[in-house]
């Protein structure tokens, strides 16, 4: 009907207000997309380690590895549970690991101390994690005071980089001999060492924090869990590994989504009001043009649609800019406290097509909402009145 | 010549708040097909009001207006808009071209309401621009044209849909003598060659001289 070029060029003529309005909408879409990308990044980081055919066992009542302790003799019982996969030599595939917290000086602020998770793994612990790869250096030797670190810890703490040493306990140095990556999983923010090294350094002889076993398949889990949880004397609780990691990340992801949503809510009210004011100004500025179009025979509905389209184009373009800028957040990584383990975990913004699409739709929608009243007013302009101005 | 436009006992009253302003009163008028009518009169006498009624832009308070036997009073607002797009070409004192569109796009605008292909629209708007001598200026925007040229583009826009009637409200009011004469010559040409019935409101006796019929309006009455 009325060509879109009319709207686009009218927007281009009023550069300043168009820019200001588009900026407001860009900001909203940016915050929206970035917070969702962060929530997704958190979920990916904390949830990636999970495998549905892995079962994860902790002491009953513990909600994180740090507060769980299982006596070593029970590890054998767990590995003997129903459905646990055996390797070629008939050995049950599973690892008992111990997790403790290291307090280390930060590299960027040497007088500040933050926590890092130190995970003690048995000799076969590295092989157990299929997604873990050494990307620099070599694996730690069993029994030696050597560790490997997740790639996201590099340079964050004093002494925590390849070839450097740090105090694992008072007067006992451990050397970083390797760096690993693990497809973005949470232990990319952990230090891995031999289980005995950790036990002797922290006085935790005879216990592990958790036991992870490979099952013959995901469907074997229910029977395994029943066997673990039914024995009151064992005092154990089995979860799917995926379920465990999701639980760990749920709270954080929800918090970020909620905070992002709250900011977006208030910002978007501002941006919608901005769009409304801009479009009201455009309508009153173009009364005579509208009157002319009406005289030529364009209907009220056509006028309404044209102005609605104009604010939608404006908002869509603003939103597209915001979405584009949010993609740049993909380059940003930052650390925050993991509430579950009280240690530093590094997060990233994870873009997804859905997040970008949602941002674009919500941006355009703000144009529709903000533009409706002005467009309605435009459609009510009487051509006779407009010509008398 | 038969009457194309027929007004019977037409009254038009505006309200300023609660206070009625009777602009036209019991007006009887017949305008023959193919005429070039000039409406003169002091300002505030109701010339524009009458023109807007004839053009189907406004509705009567009492009486009837019919054009080619069609009663405009019986139409809804939407029907009148559609009727205007097919039957009336508008020329305004201030040209009223859309400033962000080129001359050619402005001329093409009314054709967007007709069932025509893009190619047909382009051909017709070029023909209309040629008729006003501006086929070279199609890609120019209104602010790149003189007042006289803008009014010629407006004339092209008024004739592009091939309407029966052209209404012009003081079409030379903002122009110098030379440009005004060009516009008046074009209107005469549209009237003679294209057989358009033209109703023109004007203050200017020199403009009225070009018309075939001149009427005087005073205080809502023909004199
Ligand atoms: N929409 C309106 N509301 C109130 N008064 C109006 C309106 N339109 C016209 N009038 C009044 O009607 C009278 C005639 O106006 P108009 O037809 O524009 O006169 P002309 O074109 O002859 O100068 C004027 O007094 C004007 O103030
Ligand atoms: Mg007037």
Chain-wise SSE layout:
The complex is a heterodimer of chains A (389) and B (223).
Chain A: H1 4-13, H2 15-47, E1 54-59, E2 70-71, H3 72-79, E3 94-105, E4 113-121, H4 125-128, E5 133-137, E6 146-150, E7 165-169, E8 172-181, E9 190-194, H5 195-202, E10 207-208, E11 210-214, H6 221-230, E12 236-240, H7 241-285, H8 287-296, H9 300-328, E13 333-338, E14 343-348, H10 353-379, H11 383-388
Parallel strand pairs in A: 4-9, 6-8
Antiparallel strand pairs in A: 1-11, 1-12, 2-10, 3-4, 3-11, 5-8, 6-9, 7-8, 13-14
Chain B: E1 3-16, E2 19-32, E3 36-40, H1 47-54, E4 62-67, E5 70-71, H2 77-87, E6 88-91, H3 103-108, H4 118-131, H5 147-159, E7 165-169, H6 177-193, E8 197-201, H7 205-208, E9 213-218, E10 221-222
Parallel strand pairs in B: 3-8, 3-9, 6-7, 7-8
Antiparallel strand pairs in B: 1-2, 1-4, 4-5, 9-10
Helix pairs in contact in B: 4-5, 5-6
The complex binds adenosine-5'-diphosphate (ADP) and magnesium ion.
Magnesium ion binds next to helix 1 of chain B.
Short synopsis of the structure:
The complex is a heterodimer of chains A (389) and B (223). With 389 residues, chain A is an alpha+beta fold. Helices cover 49% and strands 21% of the residues of chain A.
Notes on the structure:
The complex is a heterodimer of chains A (389) and B (223). Chain A is an alpha+beta fold and 389 residues long. Chain A has two domains: 185 residues, no CATH class; 125 residues, no CATH class. Chain A is built from eleven helices and 14 strands. In chain A, strands 1, 3, 4, 5, 6, 7, 8, 9, 11 and 12 form a ten-stranded mixed beta sheet that branches. In chain A, strands 2-10 form a two-stranded antiparallel ribbon. In chain A, a hairpin with a 4-residue loop joins strand 13 and strand 14. The radius of gyration of chain A is 29 Å and the shape is elongated. The two termini of chain A are 26 Å apart. Chain B has a single domain, classed as Rossmann fold. In chain B, strand 7, helix 6 and strand 8 form a beta-alpha-beta unit. Chain B contains seven helices and ten strands. The model of chain B has no long low-confidence stretch (mean pLDDT 95). In chain B, the strands form two sheets. Chain B has a six-stranded mixed beta sheet with strand order 6-7-8-3-9-10. Chain B has 223 residues and is an alpha/beta fold. The chains are: A alpha+beta (389), B alpha/beta (223). At the A-B interface, helix 1, helix 8 and helix 11 of A face helix 2 of B. The complex binds adenosine-5'-diphosphate and magnesium ion (MG). The site of adenosine-5'-diphosphate has 12 residues of chain B, from strand 1, strand 2 and helix 1.
């Amino acid at each position: 009907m009325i060509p879109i070029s009319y709207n686009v060029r009218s927007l281009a003529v009023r550069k300043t207000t168009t820019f200001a309005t588009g900026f407001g909408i860009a900001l909203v879409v940016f915050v929206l997309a970035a917070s969702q990308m962060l929530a997704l990044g958190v979920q990916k980081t904390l949830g990636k380690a999970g495998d549905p055919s892995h079962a994860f066992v902790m002491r009953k009542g513990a909600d994180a590895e740090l507060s769980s302790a299982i006596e070593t003799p029970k590890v054998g019982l767990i590995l003997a549970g129903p459905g646990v996969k055996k390797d070629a030599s008939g050995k049950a595939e599973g690892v008992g690991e111990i997790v403790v917290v290291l307090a280390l000086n930060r590299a960027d602020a040497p007088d500040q101390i933050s926590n890092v998770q130190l995970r003690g793994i048995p000799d076969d612990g590295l092989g157990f994690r299929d997604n873990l790869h050494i990307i620099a250096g070599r694996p730690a030797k069993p029994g030696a005071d050597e560790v490997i670190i997740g790639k996201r810890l590099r340079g964050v703490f004093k002494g925590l980089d390849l070839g450097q040493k740090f105090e694992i306990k008072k007067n006992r140095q451990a050397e970083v001999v390797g760096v690993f990556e693990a497809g973005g999983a949470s232990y990319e923010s952990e230090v891995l060492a031999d289980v005995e090294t950790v036990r002797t350094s922290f006085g935790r002889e005879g216990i592990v924090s958790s036991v992870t076993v490979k099952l013959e398949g995901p469907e074997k889990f229910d029977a395994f869990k029943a066997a673990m949880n039914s024995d009151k004397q064992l005092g154990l609780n089995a979860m799917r590994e995926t379920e465990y990691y999701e639980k760990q990340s749920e709270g954080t992801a929800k918090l970020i989504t909620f905070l992002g949503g709250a900011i977006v809510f208030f910002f978007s009210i501002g941006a919608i009001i901005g769009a409304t004011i801009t479009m009201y100004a455009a309508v009153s500025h173009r009364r005579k043009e509208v009157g002319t179009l009406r005289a030529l025979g364009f209907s009220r509905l056509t006028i309404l649609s044209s102005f609605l389209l104009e604010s939608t184009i404006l908002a869509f373009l603003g939103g597209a800019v915001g979405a584009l800028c949010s993609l740049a957040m993909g380059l940003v990584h930052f650390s925050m406290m993991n509430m579950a383990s009280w240690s530093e975990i590094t997060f990233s913004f994870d873009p997804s097509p859905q997040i970008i699409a949602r941002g674009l739709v919500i941006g355009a929608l703000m144009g529709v909402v903000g533009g409706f009243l002005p467009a309605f007013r435009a459609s009510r302009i009487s051509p006779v009145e407009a010509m008398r101005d | 010549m038969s009457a194309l436009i027929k007004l019977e006992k037409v009254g038009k009253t505006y309200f300023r708040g609660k206070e009625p302003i009777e602009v036209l009163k019991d007006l009887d008028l017949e305008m023959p097909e193919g005429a070039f009518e000039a409406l003169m009169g002091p300002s505030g006498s109701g010339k524009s009001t009458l023109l807007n009624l004839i053009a189907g832009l406004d509705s009567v308070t009492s009486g009837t207006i019919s054009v080619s036997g069609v009663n405009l009073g019986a139409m809804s607002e939407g029907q009148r808009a559609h009727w205007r797009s097919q039957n009336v070409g508008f020329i305004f004192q201030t040209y009223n071209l859309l400033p962000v569109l080129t001359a050619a796009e402005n001329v093409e605008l009314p054709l967007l309401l007709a069932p025509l292909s893009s190619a047909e629209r382009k051909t017709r708007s070029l023909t209309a621009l040629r008729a006003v001598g501006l086929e070279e200026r199609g890609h120019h925007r209104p602010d790149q044209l003189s007042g006289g040229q803008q009014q010629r583009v407006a004339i092209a826009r008024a004739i592009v849909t091939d309407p029966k009637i052209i209404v012009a409200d003081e079409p030379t009011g903002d122009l110098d003598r030379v440009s005004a004469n060009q516009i008046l010559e074009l209107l005469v040409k549209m009237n003679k060659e294209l057989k358009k019935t033209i109703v023109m409101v004007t203050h200017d006796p020199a403009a009225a001289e070009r018309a075939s019929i001149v009427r005087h309006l005073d205080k809502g009455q023909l004199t």
